[in-house]
Design brief:
Helix content: 25-40%
Number of domains: 1
Distance between the termini: 39 Å
Strand content: 25-35%
Order of helices and strands: HEHEHEHEEHEHEEHEHEHE
CATH architecture: 3-Layer(aba) Sandwich
CATH superfamily: Vaccinia Virus protein VP39
Number of strands: 11
Strand order of the largest sheet: 4-3-2-5-6-11-9
Radius of gyration: 18 Å
Structural class: alpha/beta
CATH topology: Rossmann fold
Shape: globular
Largest sheet: 7 strands, mixed
Length: 272
C-alpha cells in the first residue's frame, strides 16, 4: 500500500478520528493513556525557535508548540481533511501556524537549514521510505538543530496481538520487512479505512540518523499509566485518550511500550 493510499484513508477517517479521540491542546502526546511532554520533558524549551511538525494530523501538537513560545511554527500533513481540521483548531486557539500539504518523504518546498527543531509523532511508520525522511529532516535542520521522532515501538508489532489474544502463535517476526495492512475499526466494529504501516527496527532508526549527521542524544520508551492511576487522575489531563478508558490497551502497555522516542542533534558530517 502506497503513501497515496494512506493519504486517502486519512482523508476518509479524519472526521471520526477527531471526534472519537481527546488530544490535548496544552500538552504534547507520545502515546495513548501515557505521560506527555509536561512529565517527560522530551522537547524542552522551544522559545524563539523555528519549528516544524511532520505528520501534524489535526494540528494539536503544532498548536502546543506555538503556545510554548516557538518563534515560527510550520506543520505538514499528507491529508487535506486533517489539515482542514488543523486550520480551524489553530484559528480557534489563536495559534499562528503555517500549514503545508505534502509528503514528509519530499520536503523540496522547504529551504535547507531553515528549522531549529523538527518534531514528528506517530507519522513516520506510515511512510514508504524512512531513509528519504531522515535525509530530508537533516537537510532542513540547522547545524545543532534537534529532531524528536516518536513512532510505534517495534515490540508492539512483534507482541501486541499475541498479548491481546493470549496466543504465542500470534508473535510476529522482529525482522519482518513487509508493511502490515490493517483496518481502522469504529465503535460498532465496522472498518472505516485501511492503512499500511511498518515498525522500523532500532538499527534502522539509529543507523539512518547517524548516516545523515544526526547524533542520538536520548531514547525514551514511555510506560503508560495503570488502570488505577487513570482512575485517580483527571482523564482530561492525559494528553491522548479515547472517550472511555481502554482497559485491555492499558494492561498491555504495562508489559511492552506502545511508543519509542528518538531525540537527535544535527552535527557537521566529516567528508574525509
Amino acid at each position: 500500500m502506497s503513501n497515496e493510499n494512506n493519504r486517502q484513508s486519512w482523508d476518509k477517517l479524519s472526521e471520526y478520528y477527531q471526534l472519537s479521540t481527546s488530544i490535548s491542546l496544552d500538552d504534547i502526546h507520545y502515546a495513548p493513556y501515557s505521560p506527555g511532554e509536561k512529565e517527560l520533558n522530551v522537547i524542552g524549551d522551544v522559545k524563539g525557535l523555528d519549528v516544524i511538525e511532520l505528520g501534524c494530523g489535526g494540528g494539536q501538537i503544532a498548536i502546543v508548540l506555538a503556545k510554548m513560545g516557538a518563534k515560527n511554527v510550520a506543520a505538514l500533513d499528507i491529508s487535506e481533511q486533517q489539515l482542514n481540521h488543523a486550520r480551524l483548531l489553530a484559528s480557534r486557539e489563536k495559534a499562528n501556524i503555517t500549514f503545508l500539504h505534502g509528503d514528509m518523504e519530499n520536503l523540496s518546498s522547504l529551504q535547507n537549514a531553515s528549522f531549529d527543531l523538527v518534531v514528528s509523532v506517530h507519522a513516520i511508520s506510515y511512510v514508504s521510505n524512512i531513509e528519504n525522511v531522515l535525509s530530508e529532516i537533516s537537510r532542513i535542520l540547522r547545524l545543532n538543530g534537534r529532531v524528536v521522532l516518536c513512532t510505534i515501538h517495534p515490540l508492539q508489532y512483534v507482541l501486541w496481538e499475541a498479548l491481546e489474544e493470549d496466543s504465542i502463535k500470534k508473535v510476529q517476526s522482529y525482522f519482518g520487512s513487509e508493511p502490515s495492512t490493517w483496518d481502522w475499526i469504529d465503535n460498532t466494529k465496522t472498518p472505516i479505512a485501511t492503512f499500511s504501516d511498518r515498525a522500523h527496527r532500532y538499527e534502522e532508526f539509529v543507523n539512518g540518523l547517524l548516516k545523515n549527521g544526526l547524533i542520538l542524544e536520548r531514547v525514551i520508551e514511555p510506560r503508560g499509566y495503570t488502570i488505577e492511576e487513570l482512575k485517580t487522575i483527571d482523564l482530561e489531563e492525559v494528553a491522548y485518550h479515547n472517550k472511555r478508558i481502554d482497559e485491555q490497551f492499558t494492561r498491555i502497555n504495562q508489559i511492552i511500550p506502545f511508543s519509542i522516542i528518538y531525540v537527535a542533534k544535527k552535527i557537521e558530517i566529516d567528508q574525509n
